Request: fold
Amino acid sequence: MAYSSDLPAARGFIPPQSDEERRLMRRVEELCRVARERGIPRYMGFLSDREQDLAKAACHKADFAAIRFWGGYAGAERKVLCLEPPESWQEEPVAYLRMTAMGAGGDRLPGHRDYLGSILGLGLDRVCIGDLLADPEEPKVFYAVVLADKQEFIASELSSAGHCPVRVETCDQLPPHLEQGIERELKEATVSSLRADAVLAAMMHTSRTRAADYIAAGRVEINHLPLRAAHETVYARDIFTVRGVGRYQLAEIGGKSRKDRVFISFFQY
Reply:
């Protein structure tokens, strides 16, 4: 895919948009202060990509550089913020669970939403749970990356997902074929412009009118922030969440065709 330098490459940092996001940044700054003054590692639960951007900004503001994000495997989406001063001991903040559906088959097998809902139903916050991964080699098996101090609790308390009984086992790592994350099919399309409705329509294989209707109904987020207008410009690596439909990432923006249409590549989560 050809690249054109006159097209926007990536979205810049967006400051906190809500009291919740401002509280997150203040919390990160406080953890940075504690880690620096006491020389001990501090950890914050699993963060979305948007929350990771805010955490990076907070660490920069606090002038604290000894940070890393870790989600349990190389391709993780949700990651724990690790603040680890030089020469301090490092803890392993995440652990793994293997969840096997019992006595179910076909469409009755629990999916991502079932497992997530059941784990949250144990009284845990979303920050306690990282990625949930279906095993393509074993249809009845899902793996969960969770905070290390919640592993035993979930393993002992979780007995079903959706309407299906499940067996939960602790494990030391993900199987090798999941270590690099799920390989997603990269698709290509051309769009008339980088307006949100045009790009969303191409990714959803629908009309711009229908894509604009989703946006007007408040059903679309970009990078976990509400998309307020169909004409907004989108950027490479933007993540679209369409409530009730799915999630997509605009992976790359290419050059233009002879008919002045823009090449894009994208995938669906």
